[in-house]
Write a sequence for this structure.
């Protein structure tokens, strides 16, 4: 049985993770706050991990330092995966170790490996390289979340995660370009529209699969609450991607999250 002191420390860690997500990933924070309390204690450490890893390449202009930051997290995941000793004490790594298994640690390690693209300024090799990046970064995160709530389904997670990841990626295009990155293989309107249409197809496939997910695990998919609206906007007006005008109004966002909470993805 966990001691009172340990319980207090774990609670403090969860609160710290929630604060990291609130600041670094407000959309996932809102989605998690709409989920049952028991799921929040699983999702906040996982999403805080994702924030820490996602921002690591952007905290420095020195590639070697960025690589070291990512390696720190890979080492922490290896400690979790092997289970051969204590996991390093950290407000995110410590609670993360209580919710993921060795397989999940491997999925998150693959996520970090893909995040190495963010360190450098080489373009994606082709569209499939971009799709792989999104399936592994957003898809693996969702896959680990499903495993953590005892409803593993990697293929469903990658379909849903790809749609979610692509929606967020299209929103980020102006900022990525401003930082010297080349986020799209082909930035012409027709190519962007085709990319967004593919994301909508993945979202449709995911919706069909979610019907088989136990009811108690479905709030994991609340993280996708803006994906459809963003992808549809990119299909309708692909030129808005380059100028950062895919965002919906705060009122529509609020209504969208409420709808997802009541009716599902």
């Amino acid at each position: 049985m966990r001691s009172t002191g340990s319980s207090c420390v774990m609670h403090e860690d969860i609160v710290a993770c929630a604060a990291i997500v609130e600041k670094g990933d407000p959309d996932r924070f809102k989605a998690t706050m709409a989920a049952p309390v028991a799921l929040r204690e699983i999702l906040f450490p996982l999403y805080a991990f994702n924030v820490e890893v996602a921002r690591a390449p952007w905290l420095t202009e020195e590639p070697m330092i960025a690589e070291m930051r990512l390696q720190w997290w890979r080492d922490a995941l290896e400690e979790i995966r092997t289970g051969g000793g204590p996991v390093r004490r950290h407000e995110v790594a410590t609670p993360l170790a209580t919710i993921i298994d060795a397989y999940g640690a491997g999925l998150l390690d693959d996520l970090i490996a893909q995040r190495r693209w963010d360190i450098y300024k080489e373009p994606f090799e082709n569209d499939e390289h971009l799709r792989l990046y999104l399936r592994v970064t957003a898809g693996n995160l969702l896959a680990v979340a499903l495993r953590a709530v005892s409803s593993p389904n990697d293929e469903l997670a990658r379909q849903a995660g790809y749609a979610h990841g692509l929606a967020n990626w299209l929103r980020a295009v102006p900022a990525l370009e401003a930082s010297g990155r080349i986020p799209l293989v082909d930035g012409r309107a027709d190519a962007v529209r085709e990319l967004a249409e593919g994301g909508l197809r993945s979202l449709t496939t995911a919706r069909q699969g979610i019907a088989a997910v136990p009811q108690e695990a479905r709030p994991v998919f609340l993280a996708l609450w803006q994906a459809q609206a963003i992808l549809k906007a990119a299909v309708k007006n692909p030129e808005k991607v380059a100028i950062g005008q895919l965002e919906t109004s705060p009122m529509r966002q609020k209504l969208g999250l409420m709808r997802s909470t009541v009716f599902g993805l």
The two ends are 37 Å apart (CA to CA).
